[in-house]
Amino acid sequence: MHWTAQHKHSPQPMEPRDPQWQEKVRGSFARQKVMTLIGAELVDVRPGRCEIHLPFRADLTQQNEYFHAGIVATVVVSAGGYAGFSLMPAGSDVLTVEYKLNLLAPGEGERLIAIGEVVKSGRNLVITRGEVYTVKNGRSIHCATMQQTLMTMHGKPQVQEHKS
Amino acid sequence: MHWTAQHKHSPQPMEPRDPQWQEKVRGSFARQKVMTLIGAELVDVRPGRCEIHLPFRADLTQQNEYFHAGIVATVVVSAGGYAGFSLMPAGSDVLTVEYKLNLLAPGEGERLIAIGEVVKSGRNLVITRGEVYTVKNGRSIHCATMQQTLMTMHGKPQVQEHKS
Amino acid sequence: MHWTAQHKHSPQPMEPRDPQWQEKVRGSFARQKVMTLIGAELVDVRPGRCEIHLPFRADLTQQNEYFHAGIVATVVVSAGGYAGFSLMPAGSDVLTVEYKLNLLAPGEGERLIAIGEVVKSGRNLVITRGEVYTVKNGRSIHCATMQQTLMTMHGKPQVQEHKS
Amino acid sequence: MHWTAQHKHSPQPMEPRDPQWQEKVRGSFARQKVMTLIGAELVDVRPGRCEIHLPFRADLTQQNEYFHAGIVATVVVSAGGYAGFSLMPAGSDVLTVEYKLNLLAPGEGERLIAIGEVVKSGRNLVITRGEVYTVKNGRSIHCATMQQTLMTMHGKPQVQEHKS
Q1: D39: left (phi over 0), alpha (psi -120 to 50) or beta
Q2: In what helix (H) or strand (E) does residue C49 lie, and over which residues does it extend?
């Protein structure tokens, strides 16, 4: 076999191991009270992918009236975490071990769009990538890029909210 | 000179280049509306060091009722940013280029304490380190550690609030 | 405009600002003596993209006879750096500010393939992403993923090797 | 309890869990063939701390005749990895999950000194910090700073070299 320029790699498809993956992710998001505080919306979740939107509000800004870097982090860390959680087996919880975020453009616009996607799903560790876009006058601008390490906490299911 | 075990390095003292460094940092923090939203307090600022506290509130939590990782990031990114900003010359602004955060323990407790410190202050780039502790039953637990890159935006002073 | 699930973002094409971009990158690579030491090959360079290969050698390994993580870093940091350098204006040099590397699989195989690509090319800062694959029995395995920050050193051209 | 300025945190002492920690680390380092290739020396190892030195050689350089960033990474990633390995239980191996490296000054000098230290030693994950100094004309310059995540591979001891 001869290896030359322009190597192409075909990633494997993402298979959920928990048939309840969608309810599990949506239920967990609904229990994150900080998402209600800032007004974030879980717009889409698929196996190994999650998209969260955040409409602009003046009380989410830093000194220049842009989205604060910590708020950008809050939505993209969650998008990456839920992308990974969607692939984890039933009866397990997700832990964020660490992440690294590059800010590419000011968080200026009417809306943040955060997309998390799984890069590698191992038995214990799950690596994700996150992208954040701002929408300004209907145009999308690449605002931040993230690389994140998650850990599967086997045998530690998330506490559910029980009503009644 | 002979180099053996246990190398010791003496860092240089941090000298502010703007006589108004303290007012500048405190004024900028006061203009970050997200700090008011979450209830963060600028407890201490020195040349090259900044400490921000955040009392627990249920609306700052993730699904297990701990401080959300994004909120941990919000306070420590700001502590690191202001540690760097305190050393920048007059008439310049601070930009967070990127950071990396390791979460060491759950964000569980009555209070977060975020401390940012400058590691290297160059003409354009400033590197900081941040530590976050939670206080639980009066005991301090190391919760997160951060490494951050800032950029000095020369000739772009922060907009001041003018009260006339 | 309505923002719903599955946001798509169209990145801008990469335009070199130095007509000599290819000679510049190839000349610089040839002057990196460590590339000769380890046997790395610059296989492909395009505006905003660079691919470096490294055949296996026993003296590049860690304790389990896999490629050492530092060697994986050496090739991917260079691939990212040259991806960025290819877009920089004439008369400037490239500086690696920082990078973060996740190791996804053991560096086990006959060859490492490192690909660097520019994510965002700003006036001073250039952000890249790098992927490393190992080739084992003719199959490609995703081995590492990197996120990197470069700085353009304006007015500081790389020193050329002058013969005679 | 009242929390005011200048929070101080007392880290816990590092206790090795394997009585053979020193032989284990020194044996593993000796089996890393890349250390022989570049000429690195394991100068000091203690529970939770490791120091590796690397004398300058022209074949370890990038285009400006400084130590290549990948070589800086090679020594500091190993220093951090062995700092963590020294605390791991008998019968386990160390895996580098990821790390982030900031380059603070050019790798210019007669020698690199890399020091790895454990920040947090958990059951599975171990977080370390690494510092690299160059020694130039007998003066030590802070060259790079690293943050690293390791994983303990329980029940997977490193393969020993058997002689006879």
Answers
A1: left
A2: strand C49-55
H or E segment at D111? Answer: strand D111-121
Rounded Cα distance between C74 and D72, Å, is 9
Identity of the residue numbered B58: A
DSSP three-state, residue D84: helix
Per the listing, tokens 């940092």 go with B25
Task: Tell me how far apart the alpha carbons of residues A140 and A72 are, in angstroms, rounded to a whole number.
Answer: 15
User: Residue D116: which H helix or E strand, with range?
Assistant: strand D111-121
Transcribe C76-138 into DSSP letters: HHHHHHHHHHTTSPTT-EEEEEEEEEEE-S---SSEEEEEEEEEEE-SSEEEEEEEEEEEETT
Name the residue facing B147 among D102, D138, D140 (closest C-beta): D102
- DSSP per-residue letters across A44-59: EEETTEEEEEEE--GG
CB atoms within 10 A of CB D105: 17
Chain B partners within 8 Å of C124 (Cβ): 124, 151
Q: Which long-range contacts (CB under 8 A, 24 or more apart) does D20-25 make?
A: D20/D90, D21/D47, D21/D86, D21/D87, D22/D86, D24/D85, D24/D86, D24/D90, D24/D158, D25/D50, D25/D82, D25/D85, D25/D86
Q: CB A99 to CB B97 under 8 A?
A: no
Chain A residues touching B82 at Cβ < 8 A: none
CB contact under 8 A, B98 and A97: no
Flag whether pLDDT at C4 surpasses 70: no
Tokens at residue D39, please? 């000429």
pLDDT at C145: 98
Q: Do D9 and B133 touch (CB under 8 A)?
A: yes
Q: Is the pTM for the entire model greater than 0.80?
A: yes
Nearest of D102, D114, D113 to residue D139 by alpha carbon: D113
- Residue A17 three-state SS: coil
Name the least confident of D10-19, D22-31, D150-159. D10-19
Per-residue pLDDT tens digits for C41-61: 999 999 999 999 999 999 999
Q: Chain D residues contacting C, CB < 8 Å?
A: 28, 31-34, 36-38, 58-64, 68-71, 73-75, 77-78, 81, 95-103, 158-159
Tens digit of each residue's pLDDT (9 = 90 or more) over D93-108: 999 999 999 999 999 9
**What pLDDT shows up at residue C161?**
43
Q: What is the DSSP letter of B105?
A: S
For residue D143 the two structure tokens come to 């060259």
Task: Determine contact, residues D131/D97, Cβ cutoff 8 Å.
Answer: no
**pLDDT score for A9:** 72
